[in-house]
Amino acid sequence: MEKVEYLVVGCGLSGAIIAERIASIEKQKVLVIDKRDHIGGNVYDYKQYGITVHKYGPHVFHTNNKEVWDYLSKFTEWYYFMYRVKAFIDGKEVNIPFNLDSLYKVFPNTLAQKLEEKLLNNFKFNSKIPILELKNSSDNDLQFLAEYIYEKVFLGYTVKQWGVKPEDIDSLVSARVPIYISKDDRYFTDKYQAIPKNGYTKMIENILNNPLIEVRLKTDFKDVKNKIDYDIMYFTGSIDELFDYKHGKLPYRSLNIEFKKYDKEFMQSGPQINYPENYDYTRSVEYKYYLDEKSDKTILSYEYPCEYKDGKNERYYPIPNEDNQKLYKKYLKELLKLNNARRTGNPRWIYVLGRLGDYKYYNMDEVVEKALMLAKEKL
Ligand SMILES: Cc1cc2nc3c(=O)[nH]c(=O)nc-3n(C[C@H](O)[C@H](O)[C@H](O)COP(=O)(O)OP(=O)(O)OC[C@H]3O[C@@H](n4cnc5c(N)ncnc54)[C@H](O)[C@@H]3O)c2cc1C
User: How far, in Å, CA of 364 to CA of 354, rounded?
Assistant: First the structure.
């Protein structure tokens, strides 16, 4: 049996950062395995026709956390990028989040003006108001607007995205769909917004660039768990898998992402167009916009949400509801039991982290923050 002190399962952002911290702080060797044939996990990107394509859907880095920003900045230069997203509603491209300008795109001028005034009178300028809050207002016009946004922006998109009725979705997810009381058309408002200048894969490669770190790809934990002995494991895969699904499988939503190349310079007016109403896909993404890359061709992806099926597609989004949280907590208890057993002879210690380990949708900056925090506590 091969023996290592530190084993990291998963070479996404979480795994790469933990490995880097172990190598830099502890000055110890660390073995990183990943079942995929590439590093980077879901932020993996590659070049085609001079265009950087994000294999697992578009990724724009955004954060207010300076520590996270400074940490990643050691491994990449940035292309500063303010994300702007449009939705195709009633045949028109409208700013998303729906904002004061969007009113004038979809309604006649007088109505748009009236709604704008009411919004400004009732809510703080520059605030993001969750759609549900608007719906609960006593003003008929605001209720009408809430209903419009709910129907045209939220309902169709959410039903497609999650394959369920919006009422069945955790209110945290519904709250992600706001109306923006502003003319600011940026999708995110964080202080730092950018994309690694040479791509995410290169950034991860730089994070892993330490002679103490060994990466083994195409290596699934389940195939090697009886062949590699470790003292401490950082596991960034799905927590149910770690315990052989003994309490059942944690459900995920997946995506079928279809990539198309066109022999044209541009296909759409910006990087991302959402389709809440028509079409089976939820959004189309034109990749050359992200790093302002020049090519006489263009590459787009179309996302078709679907159910996650083990071995058939990828785990993309944990499904946040009470039952799934209960199931997740059962696995957390198993982890505690396992680690407690250490005191009675089990020499191993396991930490579980990342979007799959915590069964939580995390933006990239949250994943970085959590990995850095864990490293600070444990190393
Ligand atoms: C479609 C989509 C778009 C997104 N866009 C954004 C965005 O614009 N901005 C943003 O901030 N965030 C975005 N995110 C979130 C971002 O992708 C995640 O926060 C981040 O990639 C999570 O990193 P991670 O290392 O925790 O997980 P992952 O990237 O999933 O890495 C886990 C790794 O573990 C490996 N693994 C799993 N099980 C095993 C096993 N048994 N054996 C070996 N290896 C295993 C996997 O192959 C994978 O490489 C998006 C997410 C999705 C789904």
Answer: 10
